[in-house]
Specification:
This is Chromosome partitioning protein. InterPro entries: DNA_Partitioning_ATPase, MipZ, P-loop_NTPase. The protein has one domain: P-loop containing nucleotide triphosphate hydrolases (Rossmann fold, 3-Layer(aba) Sandwich). About 40% of the residues lie in helices and about 15% in strands. The chain has nine helices and nine strands. It has helices at about 15-30, 45-60, 85-100, 115-125, 135-140, 155-170, 190-205, 220-225, 245-260, and strands spanning about 5, 35-40, 70, 105-110, 125-130, 140-145, 150-155, 175-185, 210-215. A seven-stranded parallel beta sheet has the order 3-2-4-1-5-8-9, with helices on both faces. Strand 8 (about 175-185), helix 7 (about 190-205) and strand 9 (about 210-215) form a beta-alpha-beta unit. The chain is globular, with a radius of gyration of 19 Å. The protein starts with a strand and ends in a 9-residue tail after the last helix.
């Protein structure tokens, strides 16, 4: 069975698609057979990344290891059972096709609550939740007393993950390994970083996730997107010298892949 990685967060702008692009491509470059799905059928950030990648490879005559990106299949409503949801069938059909031939399936979820996203979370072996280093984003996970620093209770996204865990347990599936990434970190605001770190550590013990390092806020990610490239592709596309920021970004990707502890994954070179 393919190992399913879901990248989810019900708030936009946390860097889900950037994480999805790099994790999926890092796995492909290690020789794994990787499938990828984008459940944001409106914005299609991950889908457009792979469109850009295909165009770049064709225009430049180069061959880079790449995930197998698939669109969700269209479903004839007449084939649905009376109580069956069309979105459930679209996702289950895509997963069934990929599972037969892939080692990993990565699913990028939209930055909002949708039926597709909800179902995808129940399929996750590994759930990656990128989170901006801000208490605005922290509120997605838990309600927080700003005066005392106490956690008042889980918030909407955590409750959705809890429900997904319950459904997997009832089906006899292994627990979700939930990894929260401190993403898009700035170079300043050390006091806020310490407060966020403490709050996340406290919350992780209460609702059961691991905290891992994500990506800093860097221009390179925006520059790579139009060509569908990642940090790991640069040397293979003629970039022989990396600046300090690019080297640091590659190290962040290595640290992220190591922190995910995915099965049979070697350290990123």
């Amino acid at each position: 069975m393919a190992h399913i990685i879901v990248v989810g967060n019900e708030k936009g702008g946390a860097g889900k698609s950037t994480v999805s692009m790099h994790v999926a491509t890092a796995l492909a470059r290690q020789g794994f057979r990787v499938g990828a799905l984008d459940l944001d059928v409106r914005q299609r950030s991950l889908g457009r990344f792979f469109d850009n990648r295909s165009a770049y490879l064709a225009q430049n005559g180069v061959d880079l290891p790449s995930p197998d990106f698939r669109e969700l299949p269209e479903i004839d409503a007449a084939t649905l059972d009376e109580s069956e949801n069309v979105h459930d069938r679209r996702l289950s059909t895509a997963i069934a096709e990929l599972e037969r031939e892939k080692d990993f399936i990565l699913i990028d979820c939209p930055g909002s609550h949708t039926r597709l996203s909800q179902v995808a979370h129940t399929l996750a072996d590994t759930l990656i939740t990128p989170l901006n280093d801000s208490f605005i984003d922290f509120d997605l996970l838990a309600r927080h007393d700003g005066a005392t620093g106490k956690i008042l209770g889980p918030s909407i996204y955590s409750e959705m993950v809890w429900n997904a865990r319950q459904m997997r347990a009832q089906a006899g599936l292994k627990p979700i390994d939930w990894v929260v990434l401190r993403n898009r970190l700035g170079a300043q605001q050390m006091h806020n970083k310490r407060k966020m770190g403490k709050a996340l550590d406290n919350l992780s013990r209460r609702i059961g996730f691991r905290v891992a390092p994500g990506f800093s806020e860097r221009v390179i990610f925006r520059e790579l997107f139009p060509n569908g490239l990642t940090l790991l592709d640069l040397k293979d596309t003629g970039v022989t010298t990396l600046n300090i920021s690019n080297v640091a970004a590659r190290q962040e990707l290595r640290d992220l892949m190591a922190a995910l502890k995915l099965p049979e994954v070697e350290p990123v070179a």
